[in-house]
């Protein structure tokens, strides 16, 4: 057996087979760190030669990301609409990033954050074919995991940007880092202050029994212990959107709300948002196929038995949607609102009426400009109300290369 002391005081015991698997993973992660380092060096050939410290930081970062990636439960992610389950950046890692030199910070940023190579490297660790970054179509679990990795990368990137923007010299942060422990130990000395209860000596001098009564009032002060209950509420809070995510959400929401606007992030995110509207048909998913009928994407709740999906056909070259009913293509007018028109045309009459009524539109005029404006406004509001949910996905879309506009 191989024993490892964990940071929480526990001991992890591995049998020989598990130990070999761990060593194999460590070897893989070391190779990934080296490849990322090479990417960072290639991004700026004029930069100083990479240091051992830069490699170690990259290796630690990839290890943290990989351990989360390999341990995540896809079924739990599918139900995690508030994006609570995300890889976290350790505080000691943030302090370590702040201590690197400016040249090291730039190298790490190029290697881990701006190259987009990290996600591809993580996918090589997965045994499932679902994590093929070059596949023509990706399953939901691929996007679920990827959109949670990007906020982690963004946190690292912000820490590196902060380091690069600092006016301190390359050695100053290290000196400050070294000084921190000394500062943190001094507050530990005040525990001598409990000696102040030595005023209990006067009670010894004041032999009268009048002193015991003051000791009884403190007893009622024990009930404040229930104040510890707020603590569990903190982990239950969904993560807040970063300023960058909030800005992207505001931008996309404006684009969705604008009649005839179909380009930009708003056009990319809208299929993800519209299916979350309260009035979206229960048990009905949204399918998007290419003009030959091959499935491109699927959004919304799982399809219920006996329920037909809302199906759209996308002409990627023109960025134009058509409705698809009973296997037949049903054209809709162009003009920037084809996605919303195609959605309404593809719905059953009953679903369309209920859906339009839920957004305050007139079901007797489903394709009028006023109805489309109401639908756009409701979808925009749904997006704006959930920046923590959709912000990471928008960051992912902004970072992705070669994404077709919708």
General description of the model:
The protein is α+β, with helices and mostly antiparallel strands and 406 residues long. 51% of the residues lie in helices and 8% in strands. It has helices at 16-43, 52-71, 74-79, 91-98, 102-113, 117-123, 140-165, 172-185, 201-205, 212-215, 233-236, 243-257, 264-274, 338-346, 349-358, 369-384, 387-399, and strands at 2-5, 11-14, 286-290, 295-299, 310-315, 320-325, 328-330. The protein has a five-stranded mixed β-sheet, with helices on one face. A hairpin with a 4-residue loop joins β5 and β6. The longest helix has 28 residues, at 16-43. It is elongated. The protein starts with a strand and ends in a 7-residue tail after the last helix. Residues 167-211 and 401-406 have low confidence and may be disordered.
Proportion of residues in β-strands: 5-15%
Q: Helix tally? A: 17
Order of helices and strands: EEHHHHHHHHHHHHHEEEEEHHHH
- First-residue to last-residue Cα separation: 55 Å
Largest sheet: 5 strands, mixed
Helix content: 40-55%
Spatial sequence of strands, sheet with the most strands = 4-3-5-6-7
Number of strands: 7
- Going by helix content, strand content and strand pairing, the class is alpha+beta
Rg result: 28 Å
Q: Segments where pLDDT lies below 50 for 5+ residues?
A: 167-211, 401-406
The shape, in one word, is elongated
The mean pLDDT is 79
């Amino acid at each position: 057996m191989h024993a490892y002391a964990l940071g929480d005081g526990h001991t992890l015991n591995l049998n020989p087979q598990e130990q070999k698997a761990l060593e194999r993973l460590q070897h893989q992660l070391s190779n990934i760190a080296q490849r990322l380092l090479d990417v960072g060096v290639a991004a700026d050939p004029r930069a100083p030669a990479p240091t051992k410290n830069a490699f170690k930081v990259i290796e630690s970062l990839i290890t943290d990301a990989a351990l989360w990636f390999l341990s995540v439960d896809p079924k739990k992610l599918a139900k995690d609409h508030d994006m609570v389950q995300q890889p976290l950046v350790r505080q000691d890692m943030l302090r370590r990033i702040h201590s690197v030199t400016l040249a090291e910070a730039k190298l790490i940023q190029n290697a881990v954050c701006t190259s987009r190579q990290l996600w591809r490297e993580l996918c090589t660790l997965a045994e499932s074919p679902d994590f093929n970054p070059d596949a023509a179509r990706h399953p939901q679990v691929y996007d679920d995991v990827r959109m949670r990795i990007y906020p982690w990368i963004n946190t690292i990137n912000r820490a590196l940007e902060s380091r690069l923007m600092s006016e301190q010299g390359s050695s100053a942060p290290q000196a400050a880092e070294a000084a921190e422990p000394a500062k943190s130990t001094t507050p530990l000395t005040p525990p001598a202050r409990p000696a102040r209860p030595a005023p209990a000596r006067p009670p010894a001098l004041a032999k009268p029994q009048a002193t015991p009564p003051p000791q009884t009032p403190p007893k009622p002060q024990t009930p404040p212990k229930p104040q510890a209950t707020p603590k569990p509420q903190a982990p239950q809070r969904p993560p807040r959107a970063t300023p960058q995510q909030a800005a992207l959400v505001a931008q996309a929401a404006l684009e969705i709300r604008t009649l005839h606007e179909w380009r930009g992030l708003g056009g990319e995110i809208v299929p993800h948002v519209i299916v979350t509207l309260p009035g979206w048909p229960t048990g009905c998913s949204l399918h998007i196929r290419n003009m030959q009928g091959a499935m491109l994407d699927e959004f919304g709740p799982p399809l219920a038995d006996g329920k037909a999906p809302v199906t759209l056909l996308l002409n990627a070259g023109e960025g134009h949607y058509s409705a698809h009913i009973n296997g037949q293509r049903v054209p809709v007018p162009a003009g920037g609102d084809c996605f919303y028109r195609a959605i309404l045309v593809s719905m059953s009459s009953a679903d369309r009426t209920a859906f339009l009524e839920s957004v305050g539109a007139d079901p007797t005029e489903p394709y009028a400009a006023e109805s489309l404006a109401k639908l756009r406004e409701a979808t925009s509001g749904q997006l704006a109300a959930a920046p923590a949910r959709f912000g990471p996905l928008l960051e992912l879309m902004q970072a992705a290369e070669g994404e077709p506009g919708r």
